[in-house]
Amino acid sequence: MDVEITIGVQNVARELVVETDQPADKVAKDVLAAVEKGAPLDLTDARGRRVIVPAGTLGYVEFGGDETRRVGFHNI
Q1: Largest Cα–Cα distance of the chain, in whole Å?
Q2: Which of 14, 15, 46, 55 is the most exposed place for a label (fewest CB within 10 A)?
Q3: Percent of the chain scored above 70 by pLDDT?
Q4: Buried b vs exposed e over 12-45: b needs ≥16 C-beta within 10 Å?
């Protein structure tokens, strides 16, 4: 069950979108700890790639649902 995380970085127009297999609660704790300590936010996505964002540049972190993605056409 993957969780989609959208990270807004200050002064950057594009968002970072990361899918991770870690529970949303654990990622939320990691985000809060990074902000409190001023340490970089270090995430690993579902494919094993690392994303490191300096805590001072975080604008927001949004957690998407853990529902499966739908593929196909809507009502035609």
Answers
A1: 51
A2: 14
A3: 83
A4: eeeeeebebeeebeebeebbeebeeeeeebebeb
